[in-house]
Specification:
This protein is mostly helical and 567 residues long. It folds into two domains: 22-204 and 216-277, no CATH class; 281-562, no CATH class. It contains 19 helices and four strands. Strands 1-2 form a two-stranded antiparallel ribbon. A two-stranded antiparallel ribbon has the order 3-4. Helix 4 runs parallel beside helix 18 (482-511) and helix 13 (359-370) runs parallel beside helix 17. The protein starts with a helix and ends in a 5-residue tail after the last helix. The model has no long low-confidence stretch (mean pLDDT 90).
Length: 567
């Protein structure tokens, strides 16, 4: 590790901190229905969309109605994207003449982009037409991200309001999140990426003559626009198979920084939105501090592990850190930082191959996802995910002080705790359950690219990434098989909707409760003590759940590496 490397990490962290308040303030005004500088442009469009949907900004919904609207909308998006892939061969904007996508892969991809996962068992430039990339995948990037923001807003209203029945309007939240937040930022980012050298064209693939005299086809397309939303919406699906390691998706150091900032910007700002809406910004900063502690710890371990490298390689007289699977343009520090950023958020974009990291360096991205990606997390999804842990932490604090647990003046009772536990447990059910089955079946083991504990980690990482709605992968696993396409698709659906429904149920329960004034016995939730408790609860729950699996995967691989054994 070097001082220069840590300065780059601190610069990135400083930019995120500086963005929290202004972006949080803007988003609060948007979702509160207040006027913004974009209102003259978007209000007519917004109201027109409401008329088409048969609703208005003044109409609010009970949490069950909110949930039904969300489920129906996502089902429609899933079916449309599946149909577009299956009919790709007869649809326009297909200059490469790509045929229909196979059924299992179409199911996996439709589930992936609808759940904001963007797991890719295909090469984008060789499988998907321009139309499917733009009207299918990119559209889902927008609406899946806006769905996550909407659910977070519903849960925030549950805490901010008292003695109510409604948690907002899904169609209004979806529309405002797309029109006022995602779309304008993506326009600016797209222009920036084009300026930096990212292609944005509907023209055919380019042909070039190599120095050896052979013909080479260079894939192009509307890359910059998809790149903007894939990062800002924490989607992660690359236009190219190499994702952000591809020079057309990530030309240099500045584009790399811009992408990392885009991944965390909205998720970090959601903490400020929460603080503003409950009229106590210290509450938001406490949650942000919790995320920050876990994030910095993850970066430190990953950077240390990759900078230390492999002692087996050092024994051959080759000094330096682990550069395997990394772009020379970014080096160890920016590859390590990017890996932690993309798995702390539910993004999944990569600028290095995580399967080529050292055992401990690759374990941190895995742990980030196993914790539910609550370390900032996906846009909206990370925030309602960490609020589930807040419920558990408040319950634990109530047991310790012998009082009914309270949070933001709301009593946390049996219903909220049960819903939070249900949502948290669905993730290990999908991650560990599917992994256990896959390692026992010949069809599951046949896809492993490496033997021993690293092969086990490949399978564990795949299902963890799917259930956490991340989308990154250990590249050694061959995922484009009927078994993995179907089971990872199911893991994505479980990880998305078995968390969202309990979160909305908690919102509906809390919004109906009265606000209880703070007293001398109220446990403070806006200071270092609560931050420490919340960090401890997250790590203990994650450790108890996943340590046995980590022990037979990356931990034993690291110990074997120290003894000179490779896999």
């Amino acid at each position: 590790m070097t001082l220069y490397g840590w300065l780059q990490i601190l610069l990135f962290c400083g930019i995120i901190i500086l963005l929290v308040k202004p972006l949080g303030g803007y988003m609060t005004r948007v979702f509160s229905g207040e006027r913004t500088f974009l209102s003259p442009l978007f209000v007519p469009v917004e109201r027109g969309l409401y008329r088409l949907a048969g609703t208005s900004e003044r109409e609010e919904q009970h949490w069950t109605t909110y949930a039904v609207g969300m489920l129906l909308f996502n089902l429609a998006g899933f079916l449309l994207l599946y149909a577009m892939q299956r009919l790709q061969g007869v649809l326009p904007f297909n200059p490469a003449g790509m045929g229909a996508v196979p059924p299992e892969l179409s199911f996996n991809t439709a589930a992936s982009f609808m759940t904001n996962t963007n797991w890719q068992n295909y090469g984008g430039e060789s499988t998907m037409s321009y139309l499917v990339q733009m009207a299918g995948l990119t559209v889902q990037n927008f609406v899946s991200a806006a769905t996550g923001i909407a659910i977070a807003m519903a849960l925030i209203r549950g805490l901010a309001r008292a003695s109510g029945r409604t948690v907002g309007n899904f169609w209004v939240d979806l529309t405002r999140g797309t029109l006022y937040v995602l779309l304008p930022l993506c326009v600016l980012l797209t222009l920036a990426y084009v300026y930096l050298g990212v292609p944005q064209t509907l023209g055919a693939y380019a042909e070039a003559d190599t120095l050896e005299g052979a013909k080479q086809t260079i894939a192009l397309g509307p890359v910059a626009s998809q790149l903007a939303i894939k990062m800002l919406g924490t989607n992660g699906g690359g236009f190219f198979n190499a994702n952000s390691a591809h020079p057309f998706e990530n030309p240099g150091a500045f584009s790399n920084l811009l992408q990392m900032v885009s991944i965390l910007a909205i998720g970090a700002a959601m903490t400020n939105v929460f603080g503003r809406m409950v009229d106590n910004q210290r509450q938001g900063w406490a949650i942000f501090a919790t995320m920050g502690v876990l994030f910095v710890a993850g970066v430190a371990v990953t950077y240390w592990a990759e900078a230390a490298g492999n002692p087996i390689v050092h024994a051959l007289g080759l000094e330096g850190g682990n550069m395997e699977g990394k772009e020379a343009r970014f080096g160890i520090v920016l590859s390590s930082l990017f890996a932690v950023v993309t798995t702390a958020a539910s993004c999944g974009a990569v600028n290095a191959m995580h399967g080529s990291f050292t055992a401990l360096g690759g374990m941190i991205p895995l742990i980030n996802m196993e914790l539910g990606e609550v370390i900032v997390g996906g846009v909206g999804a990370g925030f309602y995910g960490i609020l589930l842990f807040v419920v558990i932490a408040i319950f634990v604090a109530g047991l310790m002080v012998g009082r009914t647990p309270e949070y933001i003046g709301k009593k946390i009772e049996a219903k909220e705790v049960k819903m939070a536990v249900l949502a948290i447990l669905c993730l290990p059910l999908a991650m560990l359950g599917f992994t256990a089955i896959a390692v026992l079946l010949p069809t599951g083991v046949a896809s492993i690219g490496n033997p021993g504990p690293h092969g086990f980690s490949e399978i564990l990482y795949a299902y963890t990434s799917g259930a956490a709605n991340n989308g990154s992968a250990f590249g050694g696993l061959t995922g484009n098989t009927p078994w993995y396409n179907i089971t990872i698709g199911l893991a994505m659906l479980m990880g998305r909707f078995l968390v969202i429904i309990p979160a909305l149920a908690i919102a509906g329960s809390l919004v109906a409760k009265k606000t209880v004034p703070a007293s001398a016995g109220t446990f403070p939730t806006d200071g270092p003590l609560f931050v420490g408790l919340l960090v401890g609860v997250i790590l203990i729950v994650g450790g108890l759940t996943f340590f046995p699996a980590l022990a037979v995967g990356p931990i034993v691989e690291h110990l074997a590496m120290l003894l000179g054994q490779t896999f």
